[in-house]
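Quiz preparation item.
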């Protein structure tokens, strides 16, 4: 518990916000190993005065830009193909041509072309930017040619007064990169003098032929050519400074101009046009953004367009790419921000240097914003953009809240993958004060002073030095000290992972390997294994009092908040299995045996033998658990003999060594864990069967890199497959929360679904809370929550996989044999010092508790926190027999039926609970004595064979169909 609480302080506010990937969209500059990053474009020339094919569509569904002209306002032509490679027709901007005549909000809404997946039109943004190469040693950067300004009001409290949609209150005189103005529905606008008026942003009749009168962009479809043409409203060839722009001419807040950033027809400056799209594929009915296409090009003095292409001289290529969109999508899904922008090449078009947030005046430059949001609470300074609080320190309590990255932020290659982005190595090849300072935010590079991250982590508010190299006026000298060799050295960790595989010098890496698990005639388990150090199987030292099993490493440690925050470490074996419960003879969930036998104790107590000296393979005899070495004596625990009805018998080897002299994380070095189901028969003479696998470890680690190592929990020495060994259906209940794996893993990830604070759950998930404010209910999931296959293997979350239809020798399926989940035990008291942990929808101290009491909308559930009502003693294991203890009041436990337990981890509102407990015959906080005699029928309507497709679990959780959600919606 102590270790978990320490862990939760770091992890409970995990928001991960915009990416557990995209840490640096602009990069640290440059191209490859060069100190400058002005790209060379292979030329593909087309006439600029006619719509001419620039590139063929890829041989797949999606969108592509096929034509560009730039005479005054640019014109871009593009194609969209559906899954069958046919033209997608009928797309709109916000409205059709009749919008200008609309006089009411109702009529205005009716004029909008209906698209269930794409409210607000199909073309949601069109932008144009240029690539700028500074002369002060800074890396090249994109600069938008269209800017927006919102007005200054210094009297706004950023935390309490955010204004409203109809009467926004302006904050700062920020100039922001933006998209070309689009038509709108009926809108209330507030002018700079404070007056308001209601109207539409739509073009006059001659807007198409007279660009000077154009207020908003125009979209036209050429059905014969199967193309779309978008005509910009903003002239990017003639300078228009913000001071001369017309207030609220085409936007409801502020004004739009090119602010002097014009397109120069010099044949060498690289420009980019990007489209943000949203449409429904007519074939699949799925939502798509077509890849949000961009295209890079130059324009010469004669108006000819030259597209940046790949080495073949034909395929369009990006002039600068430091992060590939697919890296971001691993955690965020395909539509991460601003209503569905999913292309990093598009993001950098607006998030330029000099662009600031009109809500906070904080910089929005991509290389700063994305680093700081992902760095989050590890920053030394507060940082907030719009509603996203990366870091905030309460001035009174000093408590720091904000976002959390679900892996070590030093894993630069998580986002900067040089196999997917040409300039991905800029993070180490082209350092800059801006990029490096986005994480090392306490350093003032102008003076060289400031607070380092290391000192801040140790609680200091000042550093004896800041930047060792002193003050720097520009970036020209950065590479003198920080080059492509030593920058990665600074970012190495002590724990090897997929994105940081080479650890710090002198630090070892461990991995465990199990090659065999057998059950002997006395119902004991034997395990053949190896310990690999730096990839090589090791030989153990000979035991003697005070000796170490491996020279230089402690193989058993104790928790210490400062020196060993990961808790008691030491490689150990765990034996897990299922035994009969609640009338289910062969449960399909583990429910017994999760006690550890430490390798150190086996070594000291004759519990090991050498199986193969040539390969340093050992056999461990799992007989009696032990509590550790006490001098030369092994203190025995309880038997590890299997009960006669044990099923799904599995052995695990996991946890950590402590390396002598290593101070990071108390010297803890976790090994890559191993687990294996026993071969042969179980004690009843039937073949042992491994527990089902419903997820892919690699999917979890796309966000976590190496689960448990950063943020730190359970020493990082477990795999996701091992979680269900301890987090069984019988785990938890004393606080009114179950700790069953199927509940808490969903409860944590589904705690909130938006960055603006809207919760997925009605009742905050406060299991294992550290405090009233520091708990799992503050976790924000970074992806599309309804996309179950982000973690699950196909068919394993909707019960369509073959493993769910197979029957055992008794004619039972996995679903038939799932155990009921224990939710409440004991006598929870409202006077408890940790009463904030109990499930409650009302404010703490109000006396109104969730999921129970006479006023609950969902029961007779009878979950009462009064210190009197007794919910019985939960299931436990008899140490003498390893069988479940027969409790005197197990029927009083409040439980959930298996499928209902998983579904209600996210869907816990009163309507959903009523449906589940009535129509679905599911149990939720129901006495065990009654629940086990009532079988849920959820799969009748929601299973793979359900007659109504929309109700099937897979269809209801299709992330490509409405209602669609993303982290900030």
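Solution:
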């Amino acid at each position: 518990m102590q270790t978990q609480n320490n862990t939760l302080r770091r992890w409970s506010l995990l928001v991960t916000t915009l990416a557990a990937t995209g840490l640096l969209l602009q990069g640290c500059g440059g191209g490859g190993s060069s100190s400058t990053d002005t790209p060379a474009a292979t030329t593909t020339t087309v006439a600029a005065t006619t719509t001419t094919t620039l590139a063929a569509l890829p041989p797949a569904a999606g969108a592509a830009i096929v034509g560009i002209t730039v005479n005054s306002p640019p014109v871009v032509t593009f194609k969209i193909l559906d899954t069958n490679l046919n033209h997608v027709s009928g797309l709109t901007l916000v409205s059709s041509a009749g919008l200008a005549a609309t006089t009411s909000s109702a009529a205005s809404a009716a004029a909008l072309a209906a698209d269930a997946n794409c409210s607000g039109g199909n073309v949601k943004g069109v932008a144009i930017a240029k690539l700028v190469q500074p002369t002060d040693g800074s890396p090249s950067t994109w600069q938008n040619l269209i800017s927006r300004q919102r007005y200054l009001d210094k009297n706004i409290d950023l935390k309490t007064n955010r204004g409203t949609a109809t009467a926004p209150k302006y904050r700062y005189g920020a100039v922001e990169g933006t998209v070309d103005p689009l038509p709108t529905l009926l809108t209330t606008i507030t002018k700079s003098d404070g007056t308001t008026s209601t109207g539409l942003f739509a073009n006059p009749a001659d807007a198409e032929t007279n660009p000077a009168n154009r207020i908003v962009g125009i979209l036209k479809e050429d059905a014969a050519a199967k193309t779309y043409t978008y005509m910009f409203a903003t002239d990017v060839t003639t300078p228009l400074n913000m001071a001369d722009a017309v207030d609220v001419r085409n936007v409801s807040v502020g004004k739009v101009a090119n602010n002097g950033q014009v397109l120069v027809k010099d044949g060498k400056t690289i420009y980019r046009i990007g489209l943000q799209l949203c449409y429904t594929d007519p074939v699949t009915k799925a939502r798509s953004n077509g890849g949000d296409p961009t295209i890079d090009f130059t324009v010469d003095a004669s108006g000819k367009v030259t597209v940046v292409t790949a080495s073949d001289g034909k395929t369009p290529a990006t002039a600068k790419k430091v992060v590939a969109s697919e890296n971001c999508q691993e955690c965020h899904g395909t539509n991460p921000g601003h209503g569905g922008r999913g292309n990093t090449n598009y993001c950098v078009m607006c998030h330029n240097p000099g662009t600031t947030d009109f809500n906070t005046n904080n910089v929005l430059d991509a290389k700063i914003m994305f680093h700081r949001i992902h760095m989050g609470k590890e920053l030394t300074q507060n940082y907030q953009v719009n509603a996203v609080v990366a870091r905030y320190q309460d001035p009174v309590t000093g408590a720091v809240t904000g976002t959390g990255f679900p892996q070590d932020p030093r894993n630069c290659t998580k986002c900067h993958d040089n196999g997917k982005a040409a300039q991905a190595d800029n993070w180490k090849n082209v350092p800059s004060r801006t990029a490096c300072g986005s994480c090392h935010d306490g350093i003032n590079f102008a003076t060289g002073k400031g607070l380092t991250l290391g000192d801040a982590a140790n609680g200091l508010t000042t550093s004896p030095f800041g930047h060792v190299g002193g003050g720097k006026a520009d970036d020209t000298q950065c590479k003198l000290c920080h080059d492509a060799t030593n920058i990665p050295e600074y970012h190495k960790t002590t724990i090897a992972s997929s994105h940081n595989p080479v650890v710090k010098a002198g630090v070892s890496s461990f991995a465990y390997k199990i090659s065999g698990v057998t059950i002997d005639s006395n119902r004991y388990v034997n395990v053949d294994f190896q310990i690999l150090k730096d990839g090589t199987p090791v030989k153990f030292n000979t035991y003697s009092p005070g000796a170490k099993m491996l020279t230089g490493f402690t193989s058993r440690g104790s928790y210490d908040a400062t020196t060993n925050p990961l808790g008691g470490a030491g490689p150990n074996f765990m034996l897990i299995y299922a035994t009969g419960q609640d009338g289910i003879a062969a449960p399909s969930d583990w429910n017994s045996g999760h006690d550890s036998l430490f390798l150190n104790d086996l070594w000291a107590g004759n519990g090991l033998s050498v199986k193969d000296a040539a390969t340093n393979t050992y056999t461990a005899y799992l007989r009696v658990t032990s509590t550790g070495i006490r001098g030369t004596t092994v203190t025995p625990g309880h038997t590890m003999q299997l009960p006669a009805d044990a099923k799904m018998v599995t052995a695990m080897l996991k946890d950590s060594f402590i390396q002598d002299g290593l101070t990071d994380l108390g010297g803890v070095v976790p090994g890559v864990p191993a687990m294996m189901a026993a071969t042969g028969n179980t004690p009843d003479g039937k073949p042992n069967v491994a527990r089902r696998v419903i997820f892919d470890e690699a999917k979890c680690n796309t966000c976590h890199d190496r689960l448990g190592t950063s943020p730190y929990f359970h020493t990082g020495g477990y795999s996701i497959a091992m979680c269900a060994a301890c987090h069984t259906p019988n785990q938890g209940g004393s606080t009114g929360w179950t700790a069953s794996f199927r509940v808490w893993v969903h409860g944590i990830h589904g705690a909130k679904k938006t960055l603006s604070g809207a919760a997925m759950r009605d009742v905050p998930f406060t299991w294992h809370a550290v405090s009233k404010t520091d708990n799992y209910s503050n976790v924000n999931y970074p992806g599309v929550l309804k996309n179950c296959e982000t973690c699950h293997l196909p068919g394993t979350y909707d019960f369509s996989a073959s493993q769910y239809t197979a029957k055992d020798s008794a004619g039972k399926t996995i679903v038939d044999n799932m155990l009921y989940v224990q939710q409440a035990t004991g006598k929870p008291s409202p006077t408890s010092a940790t009463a904030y942990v109990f499930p409650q929808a009302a404010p703490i101290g109000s006396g109104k508790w969730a999921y129970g009491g006479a006023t609950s909308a969902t029961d007779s559930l009878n979950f009462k926190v009064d210190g009197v009502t007794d919910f019985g003693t939960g299931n436990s294991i008899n140490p003498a027999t390893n069988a479940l203890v027969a409790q005197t009041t197990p029927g009083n436990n409040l439980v959930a039926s298996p499928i209902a337990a998983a579904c209600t981890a996210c869907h816990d509102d009163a309507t959903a609970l009523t449906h589940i407990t009535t129509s679905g015959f599911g149990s939720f906080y129901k006495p065990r004595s009654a629940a086990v005699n009532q079988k849920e029928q959820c799969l009748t309507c929601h299973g793979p064979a359900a007659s109504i497709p929309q109700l099937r679990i897979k269809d209801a959780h299709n992330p490509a169909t409405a209602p669609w959600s993303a982290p900030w919606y």
